[in-house]
Amino acid sequence: MNETMKAEIESQDDELFDLTPSYLKKEIMVLACGNILFADDGFSVHVIEKLNKILTDKEKQKIALVDAGAGAPQQVLTLIDENSKTKKIIVVDVIDWGIKPGEIKIIEKDELPNPKYHRLDSHDWPLAPLLREVAEKYNIEVKVVGCQAKYISEPDVYIGLSEEVEKAVDKAVEIILRELRGD
């Protein structure tokens, strides 16, 4: 077997055993955090669904749309390492910054809160410190497109967004598209 054939076989073996999730093989990740079962907490899911309809197939080759739900964003972020292709993460979530319900706030990495926590589980784990760590350790640009929630029904199930937050979905999509397309 010549050297060219050996190299080709090794390359195929590497691909077979590459366990990197597909969303970490793209330059940009739009990470939706939320749960449609809890009223306005489902904001990000609606944003991701609209982006999925609007983005072209060519754009989707470099942009990963990840609906991580309420508990999985931390797991998604902890999989990032030096082999990840991700250069930018746009997190979409509801926020509580004391602004008007439905108002959109863009939060840069340096503005992320730094909460102290003692208990560690996937529902109470603050995302901001992990976002900051990933951004700094792997030189990834991070932004949060946050929408001030009006009503989060948890633990009660309520499917549907408040009127204010529903109106904010299109605005968030426009902001994200400008960020993705460089408009």
Question: What are the SSEs and their pairings?
Answer:
Layout lengths: L2 H14 L11 E5 L10 H12 L2 H4 L2 E5 L5 H6 L9 E8 L8 E5 L18 H12 L2 E8 L14 H19 L2
Parallel strand pairs: 1-2, 1-3, 3-5
Antiparallel strand pairs: 4-5
Describe this structure in words.
The chain is α/β, with parallel strands linked by helices. It has one domain: 3-Layer(aba) Sandwich (Rossmann fold), CATH 3.40.50. It is 37% helix and 17% strand. Helix 2 packs across helix 6 (163-181). The chain is globular and about 65 Å long. The relative contact order is 0.21. Keywords: Aspartyl protease, Hydrolase, Protease.
- Count of distinct structural domains: 1
Which bin fits the share of residues in helices? 25-40%
Give the C-alpha Rg.
Answer: 18 Å
CATH architectural arrangement = 3-Layer(aba) Sandwich
CATH fold type: Rossmann fold
Tally of extended strands? 5
Distance from N terminus to C terminus (CA atoms, Å) equals 52 Å
**CATH hierarchy class name:** Alpha Beta
CATH superfamily: HybD-like
* Main β-sheet, spatial strand arrangement: 2-1-3-5-4
Please give the largest β-sheet: 5 strands, mixed
Overall shape:
globular
Number of helices: 6
GO molecular function, one term: aspartic-type endopeptidase activity
Protein name: Coenzyme F420 hydrogenase subunit delta
Family: Belongs to the peptidase A31 family.
InterPro entries: Pept_A31_F420-red_hyd_d, Pept_HybD-like_dom_sf, Peptidase_A31
